[in-house]
Amino acid sequence: MFTFVTGGLCSGKSEYAIRRASEMGPPPWLYVAAYLDGDDGLKARLVGHRKDQDASWKQIGAPDALSAALDPATLDGCGALVIDRLTVWLSNRLSVTDKRSDKALLGEVEVLADRLYRSTTPGVLVTTEIGLGFLPANVPDRRLIDVAGMANQILSERAESVVMMVSGVPLRLR
Length: 174
Description:
The protein has 174 residues and is of the alpha/beta class. It has six helices and seven strands, in the order βαβαβαβααβαββ.
């Protein structure tokens, strides 16, 4: 069982996901996120998220095979998990491949969706809603939009609940 959280940049997605996960199961909880090298702003935000919860949250970087974060050994003893920054994970993966690998990457997203759906550890997956913006002329950006849009559809279809964040307000879609 998992909750799919989407919304624009700085809409309150991560804060909501952390709060929601802490309600879904007992501590400790697991926080999984893709990182961008040199993203000091992200690191500061993560420290802020954990400020009052250092003893309750385990934090790991998102593996290349994101579904590996759902391995029993990784989840052992965790009451819930948050997988944050799916769009960054997708972008990182796309940056080292060409368009021919997009179908395989979406296959990995299918595996992730299935594992989240079947997991006995409740989870919250956080992504950026990219479908509300303009379509850029830049081909790499369009590729990310296409793949992230499909990935979001795959994951939201399997989620028990879908929440869209707007200006810090959670709008439950399902």
